[in-house]
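FORM 12-B: Structure-to-Sequence Request
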């Protein structure tokens, strides 16, 4: 099957490759511009396909966002591959927050969760993704703190630190954080993780 959508002439349409190109374009725009600033028409143009094809694959902008979000790697790794203790958590964070950690995305993919969407259903997806990241942190903790609220707060503070790194890189670019490698981040993140998550007597 061929299409005539390019200046170079007919080309084969590979459904899987087209879908991946659309998701890549969507990730780039959602990360840089947020949900509200992204249009299906722009995503289609970036991927070199028609608007009708985007709608055929994803149905709506909400459907595209939901699929792009689901295709984004989990905060601390894939299911079954998450850290098992605080040392492994610090190591995973150092890899996640290294300057070269996300070559497949324009910037850290967590940025797609930060900008208001104007759509309650999409905002609920954004909030749930951040709560899921906090739960990943909580799952690593060896023992509970004094109360569940304290544990949740500590996990969310760690998530906020990670998001802050992504935001500073995206907006300001201060050194040495901007170009910090996983090795350079490992020791300070280990200190932060243990300070926040080691159970208090």
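FORM 12-B RESPONSE
SEQUENCE OUT:
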């Amino acid at each position: 099957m061929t299409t005539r959508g390019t200046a170079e002439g007919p080309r084969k349409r590979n459904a899987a490759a087209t879908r991946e190109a659309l998701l890549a374009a969507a990730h780039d725009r959602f990360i840089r511009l947020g949900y509200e600033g992204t249009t299906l028409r722009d995503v289609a143009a970036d991927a070199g396909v028609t608007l009708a094809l985007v709608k055929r694959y994803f149905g709506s902008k909400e459907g595209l966002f939901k699929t792009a979000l689901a295709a984004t790697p989990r905060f601390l790794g894939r299911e079954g591959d998450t850290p098992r203790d605080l040392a492994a958590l610090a190591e995973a964070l150092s890899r996640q927050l290294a300057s070269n950690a996300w070559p497949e995305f324009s910037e850290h993919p967590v940025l797609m969760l930060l900008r208001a969407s104007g759509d309650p259903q999409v905002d609920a997806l954004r909030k749930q993704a951040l709560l899921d990241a906090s739960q990943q942190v909580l799952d690593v903790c060896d023992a509970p703190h004094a109360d569940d609220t304290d544990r949740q707060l500590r996990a969310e503070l760690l998530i906020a630190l990670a998001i802050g790194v992504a935001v500073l890189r995206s907006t300001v670019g201060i050194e040495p954080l901007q170009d910090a490698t996983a090795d350079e981040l490992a020791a300070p993140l280990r200190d932060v993780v243990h300070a926040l998550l080691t159970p208090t007597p």
